[in-house]
Design goal:
By secondary structure, the chain is mostly beta strands. The protein has one helix spanning 82-88, and strands at 11-23, 26-39, 45-52, 59-66, 69-80, 95-109, 114-131, 134-137, 149-155, 160-172, 175-187, 192-204. Strands 1, 2, 3, 4, 5, 6, 7, 8, 9, 10, 11 and 12 form a 12-stranded antiparallel β-sheet that branches. The longest helix is centred in the middle third of the chain and has 7 residues, at 82-88.
């Protein structure tokens, strides 16, 4: 006759911890806190939350774990793009300024690992991305009213994605282009296919 375990776990908390990463001569420290709750008789937690603080930013992660499936939510109200510049700076000569908002939800299968569905909303505000003489930023006056860049992406199977990006301002040597993008991406084991549509307006500054 099976009997329940005499030991139960209510919550496990890991606080004031740090993930240490290094790349060549660069070191990164990411503070985090984790809470695990709703343990079953096999001591497997079914609810988890985490607060991750990369470079002083705040990212909240929460989720559930049931029957080999994880439902995951990632949110951040203000994540500095400068954090990504520190990571990418040694690999890609790009300057990143501004803030981003993240609202991401995904369903994952653990064994074997697969992405079952995913949906995400990202907003870029006060953006200034400079790479190879091209500047990407938020549309702004006097050419157009200021608008944050919004990015929507979703997939029902983790392979076929729909996305929308609007609006984005590109500038190079006095030429300014405003573009909205939409399209699809199809990812399989050995191929990557996509279809992108753009609505573009061109403005030429006075020389």
């Amino acid at each position: 006759k099976e009997t329940s375990s005499p030991v139960t776990i209510g919550e496990i908390r890991i606080v004031n911890s740090v993930i240490a990463l290094s790349y060549e001569d660069n070191n990164f420290s990411i503070p985090f806190d984790i809470s695990l709750t709703s343990f079953d008789s096999d001591f497997i937690p079914h609810l988890f939350t985490a607060k991750i603080s990369p470079d002083g930013n705040r990212v909240m992660v929460s989720g559930t774990w049931e029957n080999n499936n994880i439902k995951l939510v990632v949110k951040s109200d203000e994540l500095s793009l400068g954090f990504f510049e520190k990571i990418l700076g040694e690999m890609v000569p790009v300057n990143l300024k501004g803030t981003s908002t993240i609202d991401l939800a995904a369903s994952l299968s653990i064994d074997p690992f697969s992405v079952k569905d995913i949906s995400g909303f990202f907003k870029l505000d006060k953006t200034d991305i400079a790479y190879s003489g091209i500047t990407i930023s938020n549309p702004s006056a006097p050419l157009i009213d200021y608008q944050p860049v919004s990015i929507n992406i979703n997939s029902r199977d983790g392979h076929f994605f729909n996305f929308e990006i609007s609006p984005v301002m590109f500038n190079q040597s006095g030429f300014t282009v405003f573009s909205n993008f939409s399209g699809t991406i199809d990812i399989s084991e050995d191929t990557l296919k996509g279809d992108i549509k753009a609505i573009t307006r061109l403005a030429i500054e006075n020389m």
